[in-house]
Every structure is written in structure tokens, then in C-alpha cells.
Amino acid sequence: MRQRNVMSLGVALAGLLAGGSAAACALHTLSPELKISHPKALRVAMATRAALDTGLIAPLPEGDEVRREALQALARTSKELAAYADEAELSGPTYSVLLLRSGLWLRFNSWMGPARYHAPPAAPGETTLVLNESAYAALLAGRLSVPTAVEQGVLAVGGTHSAAATAHFAKLLAGFRESPMRVSARLQ
């Protein structure tokens, strides 16, 4: 039994490591794969599993149609968050957000222009927030705070402006939840 578990873990890790980063994000698909597209990805994935197991965050719905609807709502809300970030004009450092399962990148406060949904991957060393879609949905809905997400490891932050980016993201999410710009239905 132990040998079978070790082999299963080895096969799973090989699959994760071979995944690389996606050419396009899978937020709009039903892909259950985790892509190791950032050095913090595996640690966040393990913390996310523990948070799901303890009930800190809820899993995305199961079943193809229900899951598709949840992912579409998450995509709409992400676009609204990017639009709100531009409208609110909250000053802060440039940083990227990576949603692990889909490989979706968002970028905020870039000197290159407005907040971006479907941004290119972060450059090495760029300040990046890494989390799973389940934790992201909980943050957007206000069921999880940014400090708790960082403390529990479901949100990892790296780069030179980590503290400022984390504070900006928390402020952005809090303002967005109260904003009339948020038109998408609340995420379950």
C-alpha cells in the first residue's frame, strides 16, 4: 500500500512539473490541472488543499455545467475587479496576481497602462501574489481576508514590494466588494 501511494505521488508530481505554464488560461474551461507556473505554486496548492479540508475555503462547485457557470462568474468578476482598479485609482506598486488552476494572470498598477485581465506572466523577480481560484472566490466574496489568506498559506506573495502589494490588494478587494461597479452575482 505504501509503495502504491509513493508511486501515485511520484506520478502526480511528474504530471504537475511537466505541466509548465499554459499558452492560454483555463479559467474558461473545465481543466482540473494545476500548472506549476510559479515557484510558490506547489506550496500554495498544498495549503489550499488543507484549507479546503478544514473548511476555511469552499471548493468550486462540481459537475461540468455548475463548474462552468462558477468559472464564468469568476471570470466576469475578475474583469470587473480590473475595471474597478482603474476607476478607483488606488496608488500602489505594480504587481501581478496568478490564479493557479487556470493559469490566469492579472496585473495592477502597471506603468504600461490600465489593470489587465489576461495579462502576460510576471517577469522573474516581479512582485506576484499566487493563489487558487477557490481562495480568490472567498476573497472576492469577503469570506476570507487577505491577512488570513497569507497566514494560512493560501495566498503567497513574493518580490520586492510584497508588503505594499498585499496591502494594496486587500484595499482593492474591500473597495470592490462595496462598489456599484460590481455587477456579477455574488460567488457562492
Description:
The protein has 188 residues and is of the alpha+beta class. It has one domain (2-178): SCP2 sterol-binding domain (Nonspecific Lipid-transfer Protein, Chain A, 2-Layer Sandwich), CATH 3.30.1050.10. It is 48% helix and 11% strand. It has six helices and five strands. The chain has helices at residues 2-19, 41-54, 64-88, 133-141, 146-152, 162-178; strands spanning 95-99, 104-108, 116-117, 128-131, 155-158. It has a five-stranded mixed beta sheet with strand order 3-2-1-4-5, with helices on both faces. Strand 2 and strand 3 form a beta hairpin. Helix 3 crosses helix 6. The termini are far apart. 36% of the residues are buried. The model is unreliable at 1-31 (pLDDT under 50).
Task: Give a summary of the structure in a few sentences.
Helices cover about 50% and strands about 10% of the residues.
Secondary structure topology:
Blueprint: H1 2-19, H2 41-54, H3 64-88, E1 95-99, E2 104-108, E3 116-117, E4 128-131, H4 133-141, H5 146-152, E5 155-158, H6 162-178
Parallel strand pairs: 1-4
Antiparallel strand pairs: 1-2, 2-3, 4-5
Helix pairs in contact: 3-6
> What fraction of residues sit in β-strands?
5-15%
Taking strands numbered 1, 2, ... along the chain, how are they ordered across the largest sheet? 3-2-1-4-5
Helix content, binned percent: 40-55%
The total beta strand count reads 5
- Biggest sheet features: 5 strands, mixed
Rg over CA atoms: 16 Å
